[in-house]
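Record type: monomer structure entry
Structure origin: computed from sequence
Chain ID: A
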Amino acid sequence: MAGVYNKKYPVVKHEETAPGQRLLCLDAPEIALGSAPGQFLHVRCSEGRDPLLRRPISIHFAEREGGRVCILYRVAGRGTSLLARVAPGDHVDVLGPLGRGYTLPSAGERVAVVGGGIGAAPLFFLLAEMRKYYGRYLDRVSVFLGAHTLEALPGAALIREMGYHLDIATDDGSGGFKGTVADLFREASGNRTFDRVYACGPPPMLRVLAAAVGPGPAVEVSVEERMGCGVGACLSCACRVRSAGGAVEYAHVCRDGPVFNLKDLVL
């Protein structure tokens, strides 16, 4: 498969960014150069066979000039708990970059970027690419980010440093709007119109978002799903989509996604 690499890359940075969240950066020049926002890495979490399967983790940022690629993940089970033990100087076995990413906006389009919790990780790479190629239109981009608490909100300071206007939502009201980020977007979209919307988050958030955006803007969302192989061979990461004729069919998140047009998904 052209442009996909499977190697052990050295860890250059690994730190906790919030309780239960970790940022892992690898010296991986080939992957950094070939990655697009929305793609993912399939990560082996230990040297042994337990756990057997890799973990799909979105690319958080790719520093092409420096040859670094970073992932932001939540420690949630055995695999990520083992991954959390690696230190700078260790090597991590990854396969990537994999999957279909986001389509960058056309110059001057009014854009909304909506992220829920740790699922917002791939949106930082998207925002960085937009800033690089569409920097003079940043005033037309609105970013909405949400989490359970303000402490768990990933990367708010970084987004503001990039020059974006950011609205935040927290479930417990510890910062910004009290409620979900989808509810925040629904309120904001009553006063703003968008040509294009990008999102990443859990299915309940995407369902609310689908009702809020209506038929107007183009909407691309990143879908999370358990995977076996990561390249479309095992067919385990199936999701339901609508064909051009309206029939319900199955696509595979690793090969056909993880980014899909929202109107094509059956949520």
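Annotation 1: The chain has a mean pLDDT of 91.
Annotation 2: The radius of gyration is 18 Å.
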